[in-house]
Amino acid sequence: MFNLSNSIIQELNIESLNKRGIRVLVKRDDLIHNEVSGNKWRKLKYNVELCKSRKKEGILTFGGAFSNHLLATAAACHKIGLQSIGLVRGNELNKNSNETLQNCSKLGMKLVFLPRSEYKLRYEKAFIESVSIDYPNYHIVPEGGANYHGMIGCQEILKEIEEEVDHVFVAQGTSTTSCGLAMALNENQTLHAVPVLKKYDSIGEMTNLFRGSGMDEESIKPMLQKVKVYDQYHFGGYGKYTEGLLLFINEFYKKHQLKLDPIYTGKVMFALLDIIQDQSFENSTVIFIHTGGLQGIKGIEKRSGYSFF
Ligand SMILES: Cc1ncc(COP(=O)(O)O)c(C=O)c1O
Description:
This protein is α/β, with parallel strands linked by helices. Helices cover 41% and strands 17% of the residues. The strands form 2 sheets. A 6-stranded mixed sheet has the order 1-2-10-7-8-9. The two termini are 30 Å apart.
């Protein structure tokens, strides 16, 4: 449905790192598809399969006004021939409020705008039950694709990499991608997780996702032991960025012809290049998982007046 072989591995040429025997590879999941880009198809793939096997009409999911996940769900369902519904945070919004919502709507997604107080209930069992009564023919996927099926899809990212890799770097929003990657690590690999939210409890969130998928402590513990969290690269918090980060993204593009966004991947690449200054990375291979997010750049350019590339 979506061509995963588009996700090639690109090697960055950085002289100072070459000298230290460090290779930096990029897993180009951003090339999978324009809208269903990065980790989005990874998280949707098995949810779509489940939706079809349960003979549901479509997928219902949740997201904020600029959600990459909402747009990806709309685009994937449109392409596959499924219906889609997006429950959106904020009843002050409408389908023309921004480009992400306009595109969701053009792709046939029915948008339902919830008051913030109601949207907050999106993880509550009783709320989900009432949504499934209102929309019985829809497979419900949590915000950000954060469920077991999303994790299983993300596990496949590492399985496609034939190179011997020591370190894996990834952004954390809901932690679904990092959980999938942690499940796929071999005993010599370390996952370096960079949360893009301030004061985010990475290990707690990962534990909840694993537990929610039926795993017990004995299987969760060894996976989390291979995870390192860096909580100092959020640049002010979710959706926030600094002038310095924007300059970094621009400079990086000029050098490597690789586009990053200021909400997720820009923060992680910045973190990676900082963290691997440490001696312990000498003579190792590092891989950066490009989780996409480039669809949101136009909106940010409009708001900030800053041109990225
Ligand atoms: C572009 C991009 N990168 C990374 C992430 C974080 O992934 P996760 O929510 O699985 O932690 C997201 C959010 O889903 C995203 O949109």
